[in-house]
Design goal:
This is Type I-F CRISPR-associated endoribonuclease Cas6/Csy4. It comes from Halomonas flagellata. InterPro entries: CRISPR-assoc_prot_Csy4, CRISPR-Cas6/Csy4_sf. The strands form 2 sheets. Strands 1, 2, 3, 4 and 5 form a 5-stranded antiparallel sheet that branches. This protein has a 4-stranded antiparallel sheet with strand order 7-8-6-9. The model has no long low-confidence stretch (mean pLDDT 90). A hairpin with a 6-residue loop joins strand 7 and strand 8. It is of the alpha+beta class and 188 residues long. It has one domain: CRISPR-associated endoribonuclease Cas6/Csy4 (Alpha-Beta Plaits, 2-Layer Sandwich), CATH 3.30.70. The radius of gyration is 19 Å and the shape is globular. It is 24% helix and 24% strand.
Length: 188
């Protein structure tokens, strides 16, 4: 994780930034799946600016020079060039700190859980409502990208959590979203 590339969303009067970030993140996901890459991580250095649930306007790619070169050579940004500005690859600053950027999944909708229970147990929705109270719903305050699943074609919120800052890096593998529950990325 010695190098990085920043991909900044450009202002667009027709598309909100959150929609563009979802499209960009979806394209990255497809590229990471195609490459079977486990050595590329992401962070969102502006996720705290503005709206609390926004990932911000910058997607930062982290990896070795070779891994980033390989990704960028695939043309994965095709179709996004009018909406983004990609920086040149640069070395991570020497005095950087680190953090884990991971996916968090929540069971947020009681009604969705009831439909699922009814389907799995052969119950009516009324019977499922007796087993699943409204109190199971959770309000989530994490930033997210709205993306479409490659396998199910359904749209969902991919919640992203930036962990606590650490002084030392932790090596590990990243998933097909560039996220990890253990491996750190540079934070600066």
């Amino acid at each position: 994780m010695d190098y990085y590339i920043d991909i900044r969303l450009l202002p667009d009067p027709e598309f909100p930034a959150a929609m563009l970030m979802g499209a960009l993140f979806s394209k990255l996901h497809r590229a990471l799946v195609d490459l079977r890459a486990t050595d590329l991580g992401v962070s969102f250095p502006e996720h705290r600016n503005g709206h609390k649930k926004s990932l911000g306007q910058v997607l930062r790619l982290h990896g070795s020079a070779a891994a980033l070169d390989h990704l960028m050579a695939t043309g994965w940004l095709k179709g996004m060039r009018d909406h983004i500005s990609a920086s040149d690859m640069a070395e991570v600053p020497a005095d950087t700190r680190y953090l884990v950027v991971c996916r968090r999944q929540f069971k947020t909708s009681a009604e969705r859980l009831r439909r699922r229970r009814a389907r799995r147990h052969g119950e009516t929705l009324e019977q499922a409502r007796e087993h699943i109270p409204d109190s199971v719903e959770r309000k989530v305050d994490l930033p997210f990208a709205t993306i479409r699943s490659l396998s199910t074609r359904q749209t969902f919120h991919l919640f992203v959590e930036h962990g606590d800052i650490r002084q030392d890096p932790v090596a590990g593998r990243f998933n097909a979203y560039g996220l990890s529950d253990e491996a750190t990325v540079p934070w600066f």
